[in-house]
Amino acid sequence: MYEQKLMLSVEGMPPRSIAPSRKARIITIIVLLVALFYFLFPIDWLVVSSTKNNAGLITSNSLLFANNSIGKNYASLMAWSHGYHWRWVANSVLYSGTAAAAGTLLTVMAGYTIAKFNFPGRKAALAVIMLELLMPIALLTIAMYVLFQSIGLDNTVWAIIIPSCVSPFGVFFGTRLFTSIGCHRTH
């Protein structure tokens, strides 16, 4: 198989015919810096706000640290939550981490199976997945509650994790991904 090698210029850039212009690079950097600010500003605001009391949140400059200590706010948070704050954080990490890992595993396996194997009902399964993409998840909330209640899983960890593991978009994306990759690269 013939592979064409991309020859780099002296500056480490692609050949001049395909290299972005200086103006395009500057615009790209500016757009990326704006995106960086957009995503990091809420985190900065959260850290700065943790140094303020309730009155300071309203009256002081929201971008500057306050004189109130984080320790005092932490003690207030622990008193308000009766010491459950870190348990809530751990639950959030457990639920989201388990759902993300299981969801990724399931969608990749389903996408690979649909893309690489011929089995009866393959086209019907893909059609059902495409139809599920049109259905908003809020429409299924009551039905999922009734289902989990009937099998005794309501008010459990699994009632949170199981619905988060299933993603029709993930299966569709995995199917498209593995369809685009040749068989010699996946085995």
In short:
With 187 residues, the protein is mainly α. It has 9 helices and no strands. The relative contact order is 0.08.
How would you portray this structure in words?
With 187 residues, the chain is an all-alpha fold. 67% of the residues lie in helices and 0% in strands. The chain has helices at 22-49, 54-59, 70-80, 85-116, 122-134, 141-150, 158-165, 168-180, 183-186. The model has no long low-confidence stretch (mean pLDDT 86).
Keywords summarizing the entry:
flat; mainly alpha
SSE topology:
Layout: H1 22-49, H2 54-59, H3 70-80, H4 85-116, H5 122-134, H6 141-150, H7 158-165, H8 168-180, H9 183-186
Strand content: under 5%
Radius of gyration: 25 Å
Give the ordered list of helices and strands. Answer: HHHHHHHHH
Mean pLDDT: 86
Low-confidence parts lasting 5 or more residues at pLDDT below 50? none
How many helices in DSSP terms?
9
SS elements, strand count: 0
Q: Class by helix and strand content?
A: mainly alpha
How far is the first residue's CA from the last residue's CA? 19 Å
Main sheet overview: none
Q: What's the overall geometry?
A: flat
> What percentage of residues falls in helices of 4 or more residues?
55-70%
